[in-house]
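Follow-up to my post from last week.
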Amino acid sequence: MYNKLQSCLKSIREKTDFKPEVGLVLGSGLGDFAETIKTEATVEYKDIEGFPVSTVKGHKGRFVFGYSGDIPVVIMQGRVHYYEGYSMSDVVLPVRLMGLMGAKKIILTNAAGGINPKFSAGDLMIITDHITTGVPSPLIGPNIEELGTRFPDMSEVYSRRMTDIIRKSAAECGIAPKEGVYVQFTGPNYETPAEIRMASRWGGDAVGMSTACEAMAARHMGLEVCGISCITNMAAGISQNMLNHKEVQETADKVSGRFKALISKVISEI
Ligand code: HPA
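User reply:
Got it. Predicted complex:
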């Protein structure tokens, strides 16, 4: 895996030597933040040898390098998911690469279903912690010593420092964000109402199919991580409605203006 990471890195370095400070992963429907930055280079995932390419419709697949304000950032416009059939180590490869490119801070975003009854579709949730009991750890397998230790601590996956910055930035943007625990399931099916009741009793506030595994891999490398979920729908059984991907995308589109303002502000303060 470390050799694969190094060859992907070499392939990117042949196209750009841009050194980001912050890495940002844009979730479903949130990808157009990338259009707000001063772009210096883009690299399509398909042009990186050995790189996992997303198969989900509506997900672009590229790294965008540039400046948000005066901060050098790399943006993943589109991610790969475990449910696409990739191994967990391939799923987290792009985030690890952002770390190897030089990013020390990672902002993860996603679309998620709301479990907490105080949430509504269209809310933004600051991720304070996560539960990944439903998915294999991306750290299973021989430990990559060059990246981190065998048994990494996970007691503060989402940096309190960065979480405070998101809170303050949100207030300045006139946004009242929710906060809570993100539960990752494998997907691609949405959950059953019984699974959502279980996740609620576990202490989950929102549910999705990404992010937590990336956060774990980033923490393993010692990167500072924060996360924001866009609550695109209430989870199965919380709302009586049937769930569909179109609704997820439509809500993400509606929130996109507020989301972009918040992300720009967070990057400038980080
Ligand atoms: N469940 C899982 N993933 C999701 C959901 C959901 O309800 N909404 C958006 N992504």
